[in-house]
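Consider the tokenized backbone below.
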């Protein structure tokens, strides 16, 4: 009997932090050759940030590069992960963020300021903002919404599952903050870039950029797709007036 292929965005192990992380790992390892362009794009195109900071002894040229290239590229990478999880990803998706450039930059800046304000005042508001609105960029690239509606859509999609998202998003934050890096930019006021070649610096940098971050991006894409499908079913049920939300489908049988 022919084995049924289950796409990463389908039911899999269900909707929970552990299920998303486990299915995300299967997604990452099972589709690694197809994911390589998305995995390599941001680390490689981030190199000019450090070159510009070192060349001009200022972080501002690097910020300009990030706004011009990295932010729209990250939006395209997000779309690539979403569509690949649904079985129809294309390399063209990586450049989609440039077609919605101003909205991508606006959403990133607004979300960053919201997070900064939340974490500056108290830790808990920052965590709540992160859990409720982290799928704003996903809604932007997947549904082509205005910036304000992206935040509202993210809040609707994550409703009822925000604590489940904490392991995925929390790991992303921890890895970004604590993983070692081969590149040290020094002082923000007077940046001077140095390359660190210690074993742990090289190994940690590679594991972060080529294993952990891609794995968590796969997990987040799966979480978004499943929660979006759930929210859409709930919305259709409310619109049709057919009663309670249908129960989540059981995982497809394997074999």
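A designed sequence for it:
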């Amino acid at each position: 009997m022919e084995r049924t292929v289950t796409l990463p965005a389908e039911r899999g192990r269900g909707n929970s932090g552990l299920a998303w992380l486990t299915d995300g790992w299967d997604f990452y390892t099972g589709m690694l050759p197809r994911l390589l362009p998305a995995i390599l794009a941001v680390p490689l195109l981030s190199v000019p940030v450090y070159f510009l900071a070192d060349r001009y002894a200022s972080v501002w040229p690097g910020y300009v590069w990030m706004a011009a290239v990295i932010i729209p590229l990250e939006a395209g990478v997000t779309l690539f992960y979403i569509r690949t999880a649904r079985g129809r990803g294309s390399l063209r998706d990586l450049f989609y963020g440039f077609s919605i450039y101003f909205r991508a930059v606006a959403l990133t800046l607004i979300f960053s300021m919201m997070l900064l304000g939340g974490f500056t005042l108290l830790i808990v508001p920052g965590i709540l903002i992160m859990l409720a609105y982290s799928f704003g960029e996903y809604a932007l690239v997947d549904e082509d919404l205005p910036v304000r509606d992206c935040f509202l859509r993210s809040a609707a999609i994550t409703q009822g599952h925000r604590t489940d998202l904490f392991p995925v998003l929390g790991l992303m934050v921890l890895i970004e903050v604590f993983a070692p890096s081969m590149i040290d930019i020094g002082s923000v006021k007077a940046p001077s870039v140095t390359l660190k070649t210690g074993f742990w610096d090289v190994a940690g940098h590679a594991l972060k950029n080529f294993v952990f971050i891609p794995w968590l991006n796969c997990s987040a894409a799966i979480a978004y797709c499943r929660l979006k499908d759930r929210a859409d079913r709930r919305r259709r049920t409310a619109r049709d007036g057919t009663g309670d939300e249908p129960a989540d489908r059981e995982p497809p049988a394997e074999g």
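The longest strand covers residues 191-195.
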